[in-house]
Amino acid sequence: MEPTDAPRDSTERNRGTGGMKQVLAALFLLLATLPAFAARAPESLADPALEARARTLQKELRCMVCQGESIDESNAQLAADLRALIRERIKAGDSDEQIKQFLVSRYGDFILMKPPFDASTYALWLTPFAALILAAGVAIWVVVRASRAPQRKA
Fold first, then answer.
1. CATH number 1.10.8.640 given to 19-116
2. Can you tell me the distance from the alpha carbon of 90 to that of 53, in angstroms, rounded to the nearest whole number?
3. What pLDDT sits at residue 85?
């Protein structure tokens, strides 16, 4: 290595890493701004009583995207749209029952966190009990069959 090829000081040696630091800084800034692009919660109603009514109603309705969460808990865009719709309908003077009926007509009984017990939802309500009874029946059958089987001597 000739003397002219060697780096003269530490700044020349570290010149290549400065670009990497800039890329990492830009990436950090990009990641830090991501929450700004998230779906914004709709404005709350000016009247605290109406806002409380909206929040109660939102807790009774299922997010159709998440399915295990209410629209009050969900961050999905559809849930945000439904929260805004509920507030609009409350401002328009609709009752809670009218709002629920409107959403049920669009999405079916599944949107309700507690669907009604009627002919269209019997399967939804009774399937867990039927599965439990079936499992108990199979368990009893296996035990009875095992007790009747001749025991082998070793």
1. yes
2. 9
3. 94
One-letter amino acid of 43: E
The three-state secondary structure class of 147 is helix
What three-state secondary structure class fits 11?
A: helix
Question: So where are the chain's domains?
Answer: 19-116, 119-148
* CB of 111 closer than 8 Å to CB of 64: yes
- Those residues of the chain that have pLDDT short of 70 are 1-18, 34-43, 153-154
Nearest to 104 by CA among 92, 121, 126, 91: 121
Task: Give the whole-angstrom CA distance, residue 95 versus residue 53.
Answer: 10
Contact 120, 109 (CB under 8 A): yes
